[in-house]
Amino acid sequence: MSAKHFVESIVRYPVKSMQGEPCESVWLGAAGIPGDRAWALRDEVRGGLRGAKKIPALMQLAARYLEEPREGAVPPPEISLPGGEAFLADDASASGRVSEAVGHAVSLWPLLPAEAQDHYRRGAPDDPDFEVEMRALFGRTADEPLPDFTKFPTELFEFESIPGTYFDAFPLLLLTRRSLDTLAARAPDSKIDVRRFRPNLLIAGGDPADFPEIAWVGKRVAIGEAELAITVDCPRCVMTTHGFADLPRDTQIMRSLVREAGGSLGVYASVETPGNIRVGDEVRVLG
Predict the structure, then answer these.
(1) Which whole-number Å values give the CA distances from 100 to 71, 97, 105, 120, 124, in the listed order?
(2) Who has the most CB within 10 Å: 40, 138, 187, 192?
(3) Are 109 and 42 in contact (CB under 8 A)?
(4) Using one digit for the tens of pLDDT, what is the confidence trace for 169-192?
């Protein structure tokens, strides 16, 4: 009998691109984990929603909830600056303090309704050449392939995220401990740490394949009371190479990702059956 998969950790990220907070248990609804990516930043220089792909210093900041969020009732998170200063995201001075910390004019925003399409529309690119811009966002050199963008919703060409959400593409990101260990073994000079890859669910145990979750794409997965649909592999971006906390900047991580895993690590998922999950729950691939 093969070893079982189980949930090793659960993390939500109250503010897009900032460090997140661990959870012992969460409710998974249609929009994923309540409070996950519930706030984001607008670039007051170029316009549009911006994250650490463009403003790497955001990854030095952290966010957490002082009250537990629920579906339809998400309190403002507390933001912590690298020096330890903390304040609520809806504080009148919050945008200015974050702007000063990251060295770029930004404003903090909670989720707006999907009808507020101008809020979600893409801002001006740094480079008008689409390929040049994408290579910068995904950290790819001229000889490395870009991700297959046809796998993702076409709205993402016009909007920074699907209107009504601040997710890159789908509500949940799953990553296996086995995939991290495989990459670490093949990139021994890099510090491969789960924090670089920002999964909501880190899955341990189970399949000894090098990158086991890739085989789950197109299948359903049961965890606790919930059931997920695994939609597509996750193409990694330049954020995985940024330095933050005790992790150094390391562009070789992307070279290793492209060489060893086609540039992807982990899989996106959507919630088919809502329910509670917790650390330690078995993860069953249903087919």
Answers:
(1) 32, 5, 8, 24, 22
(2) 40
(3) yes
(4) 999 999 999 999 999 999 999 999
Overall number of domains in the chain: 1
Q: What is the pLDDT of residues 116-138, one digit of tens each?
A: 999 999 999 999 999 999 999 99
Note whether 90 and 273 are within 8 A (CB).
no
- Give the whole-angstrom CA distance, residue 74 versus residue 34: 7
CATH of the domain at 26: 2.40.33.20
Amino acid at 154: T
Prediction pTM value: 0.95
Task: Tell me whether residue 46 is in a domain.
Answer: no
Print the domain residue range for 280: 5-36+115-285
- What 3-state class would DSSP assign to 197? coil
> Is 187 contained in some domain?
yes
Question: Could you report how far apart the first and last alpha carbons of the chain are, in Å?
Answer: 17
The answer to the question of residue 241 being in a domain is yes
